[in-house]
Amino acid sequence: MNKLSVISSILLPLIFICSCQKELDFEGDKIPPRTVVNSVFSSDHPWNVEISQTKSVLSNEDNVTMDDAEVTISNGFGWSERLLNKGNGLYYSKFSTPRPGVEYYISVKDPDGNSMSATNKVPVQPKLTDVRQETYVSSDGTERYRVYLSFQDPPGEDNYYNISFYYLNILGEVSDILENGLSDTSYGIIPVPTLYVNDPDLNSIVRLNSGFSVDKGQNWYPSIKGVYFTDEFFDGQFVTLEFEMDPDDVSQFLDNTGGILVDSYLFYAMNFLSEDYFLYNTTLDKQVSSKGDPTAQPVKVYSNIHNGLGVFAGYSSVSDSIKINK
Q: Do residues 149 and 270 lie in contact, with contact meaning Cβ atoms separated by under 8 Å?
């Protein structure tokens, strides 16, 4: 084969490929906006719902809040209430609060006539029977706290949990707080950054980081909001969970926030979640943790809103503080 034939055998396919190329216009900016409905509810607070509308995928701006929607909450017993709007896409009830175990329905109609809906309930919380704390020195000489939480898991159903530990951080002047009490701006909370969980299913200590550590058991989901887990391996049992934490870990937060750490008390919250709330939170945390990682797989945040986006989900909570025994 002569040189001309060789060159022709290379160029002709390339010319054919190039001639078959077709420019396609990106039409992501033409995707119609969708209505976002968000309401996380418990029996401790009246109804609150946030309504917004998505923007173009090319936009870096926040969703547009919606103040002219019709938002109705109802149950299967004939009760219903249309929520009031107070601006910025927020809708509320003055007096009505969800009741545990009752299935509730939300119906939303936006100004364009689109209808969104969802259903969910506040789970009946299991009884937290015992909370206790002890201080010990680990084998590496580090002083650690150990906290035990005991509760009865309801049998024969899937249950979803979230537990978080945090310290109180005084941000205002102590004299002002003693005189006027705590306000929303005079204190903050500092989450315990690392938990060590004695996982009865794995028979080992599982290290959980609020920085989304991968050093965890398959049944534990670390989060900036504590740790999420299910009752998959202890359905219907009386359970004692053992958490360990290093009090020195929290010092890194004080470098950024300042203030006075109230380290004589450890605060905790144990939340009992509906399945929808559990799935929404765990997928949202996975999406947040994958940002900035070019190798991460895309994560779609869970939604239970029919014909829309967002979440309508219930939870119940037990929270208190433990005086630390040093």
A: yes
Among the listed residues 124, 122, 125, 127, the one whose alpha carbon sits nearest the alpha carbon of residue 152? 127
- Mapped onto helix, strand or coil, the DSSP state of residue 132 is strand
Q: Which residue has the tokens 């003055």?
A: 94
Residue 18 buriedness (CB in 10 A; 0-12 / 13-18 / 19+): exposed
Give the phi and the psi of residue 18 in degrees, each rounded to 5: -65, -35
* Per-residue tokens: 84: 């009031």
Say if CB 161 and CB 271 are below 8 A apart.
yes
Closest of 177, 326, 171 to residue 253, by C-alpha? 171
3-state secondary structure 266-298: EEEEEEEECHHHHHHHHHHHHHHHHCCCCCCCC
Domains of the chain (ranges; CATH) run 29-121 (2.60.40), 128-299+314-323 (no CATH)
Q: What are phi and psi of 256, to 5 degrees?
A: -95, -35
Predicted local distance difference test score (pLDDT) of residue 212: 35
Query: 124: closest CA among 43, 48, 46, 47?
Result: 43
pTM value is: 0.77
Q: Fill in the amino acid letter for 218.
A: Q
Which residues partner with 146 through β-bridges? 134, 244
- For residue 8, what pLDDT is reported? 45
Proportion of the chain above pLDDT 90, given as a percent: 32
Residue with tokens 């009830």: 93
- d(Cα 149, Cα 324) in Å, to the nearest integer? 15
